[in-house]
Amino acid sequence: MYTKNKMKNKITNLSAISPSLSHWIIVILSLCVINSYDGNFVFDDTEAIVNNDDVRDTPIWQIFKNDFWGTKLSHKQSHKSYRPLTILSFRLHFWLRQDLISQDFHIMNIALHSMVCLLTLFVYNMLLGPDERNTSFYAAALFAVHPIHTEAVSGIVGRAELLCTLFTWLSILLYNHVIYTKTLLHAWIAMSAFAICITIAMLCKETGITAIGICAIYDIVIVNKIYPIDVINFLLFKYSNKNVNNFFKYKNTILRLFVLSFITVILLSLRFSIMGFSVPKFQPVDNPASFMDNIFYRILNYNYIYCLNTWLLICPIWLCFDWSMGCVPLITGYDHRIFMIIMFWVLFGILIMHTFTSRKDKTLSYIIMGLAILILPFLPASNIFFNVGFVLAERILYIPSAGYCLLLVIGLQKFSARFSLPQASLLAYMILIILLFARSWIRSNQWRNEELLFQSALDVCPLNAKVHYNIAKKAADAGYVDLAKLEYQEALRLNPKYAQAMNNLGNLLKDQGQLLEALSLFKQAINLQEDSAIAWMNLGTVQSALKQYEESEASYFRALQQRSNYPNCYYNLGVLYLERKQYDKALKAWINATSQKPTHKLAWTNMIILLYDLDRLEEALRMANKALKFIPNHAPIYCNIANILGQKGKYEEAEVQFKLAISKNPMDPIIYANLGVLYHRWNKLNAAEQMYKRALQLKPDLKSAKDNMKSLYTLGTIK
After folding, report:
1. Does residue 668 fall inside a structural domain?
2. Are 461 and 323 in contact (CB under 8 A)?
């Protein structure tokens, strides 16, 4: 064991720093990710928040039936990621502001990270005790600035990790209270609070349940000082009767461990029942290693991924928002990376052997706790129990990094004590803190928008097809069609089976009139993913444009078979029926679209226009007034109401509606042109002239306004 003199010979003595000051230092260091405070919604934020109805208007009870992305858990395409409390936290933002403002989400994430960093210090203090507060501080400071956290903090969907960690740390602190409380009543109250926190952590993200394992190891190793070698000797019957009897004196510990086991069984049973006792199904592009037929190479690739995760903790230079699709090439034969795997397991094996062979002291117990925090929360992402839908994800290292930081500081402390280099160790530590702080500062800035994020990924993973796909998607949204086409083609070159890239490239080609090329791409996408609803719908739109109406209708029906709640597909089906002059079917399809998505503006507008063209004016008027209940700020609805009223000769009421339309969209030339027509019929020729001129100011080539202006001048009353 270390002597007292050696224990004092650490990096430095922080006894002069008050606890409150150390807390403020941790909070300040945690702000290394503050660059992202005013960032946009990026990458997965779009699907999980912006396009997720659960964040806006889904009934609250329905959120508990859907996965993290808003898909029903029972759906075969669901990822089974069940995080309803995280979604409710997003829902709270929308409820408070009645809008999705990305800055609100980012600021909350940064605040949560600061809270987690403080709680990390409290957990370290609990694990190490009052004599090791300097070690706790150093480890917590390292945790606060580690760049591996930028994805969890700067990516809004990382809220799941933040909330999960917050309640994981609270549950561990509560479990400590269970152990040391003096009354049975307080113990059971604390245990109940512990169970609630564990449940909340698991409902924020699934890894929250691993806190139970951390608590069990804490109880066994720290509290009861039972080490791995003791357990092995007990199992091998190498203890005397006296020693064996000692194992049974821990009746309170055994009771606590039994309660922990009971809570684990209950929570896992509930979790699997919610999933329908089925595991999610992923595509080979999500996690290629898990689809390898050769079990030896599959395990070899898993182990290489473990090496990469460890390297990102040690040296977080290569950070990427996505590590799939060629970013990490598979090991399929002789490869120099195999030596990295061997080296990893040799070093890790030495550390594990150290925990079994070292003298039993406090340092050993701290190392065991560091390993527990490092390994246990990582197990759900290890592909050991079930396949996951990613190759490598930096955010899943948020909790494990707390174990790594503790181990690193303990190692630095031992190095300083062994070689009597406290000042050199302190200097090395300070340099490390500065470097990690700077890396986090730079990386959080890259998460502010997708342009910076995707470009940074190219520097790390130029062979990642998904990176090129996302760059293409962003370019297409910005109107850079040629760049988008090139990037989609590059994504398909890197991954010829990338169905999503085929879909998006097909849509670009369709918009450019290259229908046959688009048709070929959609058919290829369907061959790869026959259950892809969007591929079937896209195929239907191209077939409709090629006048292949029967094939188009069949494709739309196939899309609806794969996804019954698909308002856009119903809308396109209605357009198909309109082209075939099947007006009742068109109306029925659009009614389905608006019943599934009451804010579907195009469906409402098309129904009103169709009823108007069919001279069913009263129905059109009722439909328009119904639409206003869901889209009260949509100017074309008011314009259509005005046209209907004008057709019925109710000019004054029509004028009011046109002015309401202008108030909603004062830059739409069509509204002014239609209002000019109303004045023209109403014989308010000067007012009609003003409206036509205003329409032509906004759009000089507007043919209807030009023609009506000429007609107005032929009357001879206006010169």
Report:
1. yes
2. yes
